[in-house]
Design a protein that fits this description.
By secondary structure, the protein is of the alpha/beta class. The chain has one domain: Rossmann fold, CATH 3.40.50. Helices cover 41% and strands 16% of the residues. The protein is built from eight helices and six strands, in the order αααβαββαβαβαβα. A six-stranded mixed beta sheet has the order 2-3-1-4-5-6, sandwiched between helices. α5 packs parallel to α6. The longest helix is centred in the first third of the chain and has 23 residues. The protein is globular and about 85 Å long. It starts with 27 loop residues before the first helix and ends with a helix. It comes from Modicella reniformis. One of its GO terms (cellular component) is preribosome, small subunit precursor. This is Bms1-type G domain-containing protein. Pfam families: Tsr1_G-like (PF22298).
Length: 238
């Protein structure tokens, strides 16, 4: 039996098939389809860096917002107007160890020929200003002072002409500055115990110190001076 020679028959069904081209980059239409219904997420870190660049800007903005809200409240309600209105609350804070918030309140009352009815929170009513003022002399307790700063209409700082503001006083100022503050006023006690020729320099030095925390302040009121004390009360009452 003879072998038949092998014949290669072309298979017409077999064709070379090349893989379709797939771009590694999505087309515009693919990107649109992929993004349908999705919202771009912004990280917390991005959000925090898009706003204000430093703490000073944030504090200034918070201060302006607080003042704006307060002005709107006063304008709408007029709750402080007149002797029958709600008293303005003034928290008194001693920043130096040799001054007393109670003593400061007593000097404020003395300037309008009055005597505090008691120690602690006390109400001042005078025909001169036609406005009730509620004074809260605070002891040197951090938590109490921070809490009072949240509800007071004014913060009255008492500094000394003899001793510098100590670390506790600076801590109080930093804490109040960071949490947001009501209107503040700076005062000085014990000025009469120093030479008269040094009074101006002492007040300038304390004003410079105060401006480090509250740049808007323009004056340090002497509690030993009746004229300055009355002017301070007038500013609070108006």
């Amino acid at each position: 039996m003879t072998e038949q020679p092998h014949q290669h028959r072309a298979n017409t069904k077999l064709k070379q098939q090349n893989k379709p081209f797939k771009s590694k980059h999505l087309t515009k239409s693919s990107l649109r389809d992929k993004a349908k219904g999705k919202v771009e997420r912004v990280s917390v870190k991005q959000q925090s860096t898009r706003g204000f660049s430093n703490k000073t800007d944030r504090r200034n903005t918070a201060k302006l917002l607080q003042l704006k809200k307060r002005e709107e409240l006063f304008r709408k309600t007029k709750i402080f107007d007149g002797k029958d209105g709600t008293p303005k609350v003034v928290a008194v804070v001693a920043l130096c160890p040799d001054v007393s918030s109670d003593d400061a309140v007593a000097k404020l009352f003395a300037s309008v020929d009055q005597v505090p009815a008691n120690k602690g929170a006390v109400l001042m009513t005078t025909d001169r200003f036609k406005q009730k003022l509620q004074f809260i002399p605070l002891q040197r307790n951090y938590i109490d002072i921070m809490d009072a700063a949240k509800v007071a209409d004014f913060l009255l700082f008492v500094m000394s002409a003899v001793e510098e503001v100590d670390k506790f006083g600076e801590m109080i100022l930093s804490g109040i500055q960071s949490q947001g503050v009501p209107s503040v006023m700076a005062t000085i006690s014990n000025l009469e115990s120093t030479p008269a020729k040094k009074h101006s320099d002492i007040k300038k030095s304390l004003l410079s110190f105060t401006n480090h925390f509250f740049p808007e302040e323009t004056k340090v009121h002497a509690l030993d001076n009746t004229t300055e004390t009355v002017n301070l009360l007038r500013m609070v009452a108006n």
